[in-house]
Design goal:
The protein is elongated. Strands 2, 3, 4, 5 and 10 form a 5-stranded mixed sheet that branches. It has a 5-stranded antiparallel sheet with strand order 12-11-17-16-15, with helices on both faces. Strands 1-8-9 form a 3-stranded antiparallel sheet. It has about 600 residues and is α+β, with helices and mostly antiparallel strands. The chain has 21 helices and 17 strands. α3 runs antiparallel to α4, α12 crosses α14 and α13 runs parallel beside α20.
């Protein structure tokens, strides 16, 4: 019988396998312990968070008031509908079911899907101006719209509508490009922001801070219920603002602006720079943009040949016409080449011959002999042609640019166009070529024509300097003591005696027979100002008036333009408009009357039809 010898290796192998098996079991037990016991709270939190969806609470924008406490912009209750994160197919199906309730066409559905796919983890605002009927219809069919949530939110309102469109601007949903910019780095998709005007300029203050609440969803991202286990963060309302604007004056301007005409006006307080009125016509209703403007309304505004979205008070450029003659008078008086009683060598017989060309005056038979004061009063072109020639081109260009006429005023609005005026004679060389122009450009520049384009705002600011004799305050809409102190770097650099002489001439324009604004003078206050007729290659001349009242202690400076508002053989449409607005403001402010001196009865008042 053969004896088997025990294998000494086998017990060791069995022991090793047992150790390995027990070690593996131990690892598994430790892992299960980690998951079930140690990590329980962490994974429980993750599980809970997976079923929560944050919903942004839109903040109420700050209200905007005028100088008398009247509401320019406030908020009313509104309803918004948002689409929660979900598969694209589900989102498409939901949008197609919503289409009939929200008046969405196929293009709208595709546009929303495009936005949805770019930010799949964010709730997407589909509409923020739902009517109560739309809310009721959707809520009645809640099982069909489990991927949506309806919220109440503050909705913007502009009680005065078109009267304040260009000043206040409007609001709209933030765009994809804006979300990528540094200016809006803390904003989320669907946020309503200021688009133009004060709404855009002061978005950081007016916009407020959004809050957040949570809803509970199931595995299919359908809303199950509100979730109260995670604290809601309340939205913070934006800061209210008060403007120096006078809404009563603004609405008055809207009511009396010549029907069917285009143009604008701006009125300033010359002492502190507050904008009292800023109006452009045709205008638009900012309420149209709340909740997203319809395609039809946008197309109508965009394609309107009268360009209602253009702010003619701050961004449109015009030749200044005869309102420019006070700039010329200022430059000539401050360098000593002209006095208020100066008479030019060539009297006005209806034209001035310069080289081979006759430069005409607006009055065919001429004004004959006038001094500077009379030339301002009667707006004689021939006189001011000679003022320009006496100054010379280089001093003229240098002087005009020293008064800020090649820049913007810096008003607190997001868009303002810089005025334009040639800087040096090299500007002409670059534009026309060294042999393509002559010194005769001086003559057109001297009467506000030629290569000069100015804004209403810039002209109003220059006349503010004339009215007070100080460096003018930078115009601003917000009432703010710091803004009241911001002044331009330039001054008239005109001796006070000379400024008062110019002021006297401007009073003659409005208050004496033969003055080009005499027919529309104020009855209870002495106003001062200058009319203008700017040549227009597309039709009748544009009508200007820039002035202020009361003349000795100005409370309002106004600049008005009516495009093609000076048709042949008719009075200027800008003059009566400006004087009605000055009169209305002085009445509102309760300014004590200081009527002009009565005109002697023996004076025959001529019919004045045009100023040039």
């Amino acid at each position: 019988m053969t004896m088997r010898v025990a294998d000494p290796v086998r017990p060791r192998r069995a022991t090793g396998a047992t150790v390995v098996l027990l070690g593996a079991v131990g690892v598994l037990v430790a892992a299960f312990f980690q998951l079930q016991v140690v990590g329980r709270s962490e994974f429980e939190l993750k599980s809970r968070d997976n079923r929560l969806r944050p919903i942004t609470i839109p903040p109420a924008r700050g209200a905007i008031y005028d100088r008398r406490g009247r509401v320019l912009a406030d908020n009313v209750p509104g309803y918004s509908l948002s689409l929660l994160p979900s598969p694209v197919d589900s989102a498409r199906a939901t949008l197609e079911r919503l289409a009939s309730y929200l008046a969405l066409d196929s293009a709208d559905v595709e546009a929303h899907l495009g936005r949805f796919s770019r930010r799949p983890q964010s709730a997407l605002v589909i509409a923020d101006n739902l009517s109560f009927q739309q809310v009721a219809a959707i809520e009645e069919r809640r099982p069909e719209f489990r991927h949506t949530v309806i919220d109440t939110h503050p909705r913007r309102r502009y009680p005065s509508g078109p009267a304040i469109g260009h000043v206040i601007g409007y609001v709209g949903e933030i765009s994809e490009d804006e979300l990528e910019s540094e200016s809006f780095q803390d904003y989320d998709a669907g946020r309503i922001i200021g688009r133009q005007g004060i709404e855009r300029q002061y978005e950081a203050s007016l916009g407020g801070t959004p809050g957040v609440r949570y809803v509970e969803v199931n595995a299919r991202n359908m809303i199950v219920s509100e979730f109260g286990g995670k604290s809601t963060v309340e939205a913070v309302t934006g800061t209210d603002m008060i403007l120096g604007l006078d809404l009563t004056l603004q609405e008055y301007a809207d009511s009396i602006f010549p029907e069917g005409m285009r143009g604008g006006l701006v009125a300033l307080d010359p002492v502190n720079g507050e904008v009292l009125a800023l109006y452009s016509y045709p205008t638009f209703d900012p309420n149209l943009f709340i909740g997203g403007i319809s395609t039809d309304d946008w197309t109508r505004l965009r394609d309107d040949p009268d360009r209602p979205l253009l702010n003619r008070a701050t961004t449109a450029l015009y030749p200044a016409g005869s309102t420019w003659k006070l700039v010329m008078a200022t430059l000539a008086m401050r360098n000593g080449s002209l006095g208020i009683g100066s008479v030019m060598p060539t009297s006005c017989n209806g034209a001035l011959q310069y080289g081979r060309r006759a430069f005409r005056c607006w009055k065919p038979n001429g004004h004959h002999v006038l001094d500077l004061s009379g030339a301002i009063k009667e707006s004689c072109n021939v006189f001011f042609y000679q003022v320009g020639l006496r100054l010379g081109l280089d001093p003229l260009l240098e002087g005009v640019n020293s008064l800020g006429f090649n820049s913007a005023t810096g008003i607190d609005l997001p868009t303002e166009t810089s005025s334009r005026f040639p800087i040096t004679r090299e500007w002409y060389d670059e534009r026309y070529g060294p042999r393509g122009w002559t010194e005769s450009v001086i003559l057109n520049l001297s009467i506000g024509q030629g290569e000069t384009e100015q804004t209403l705002l810039r002209m109003a600011q220059f006349y503010s300097a004339l009215a007070l004799g100080e460096s003018p305050v930078i115009p601003h809409l917000i009432r703010n003591e710091a803004l009241d102190q911001r002044r331009e770097s330039w001054t008239l650099n005109l001796p006070e005696e000379r400024r008062l002489e110019l002021l006297g001439a401007l009073k003659r324009v409005v208050n004496e027979p033969g003055g080009t604004a005499y027919g529309s003078r104020l009855q209870n206050w002495t106003a001062a100002g200058k009319t203008g007729t700017a040549q227009n290659p597309h039709g009748d001349p544009h009508s200007w008036f820039v002035g202020f009242a009361p003349a000795e202690a100005p409370r309002i400076v106004i600049a008005v333009i009516v495009e093609q508002g000076h048709p042949d053989n008719q009075r200027s449409l800008a003059v009566p408009l400006a004087n009605q607005i000055m009169n209305r403001f002085l009445e509102l402010e309760g300014v004590e009357p200081n009527p002009p001196l009565p005109i002697p009865r023996r004076v025959v008042v001529p019919l004045n039809t045009a100023d040039e």
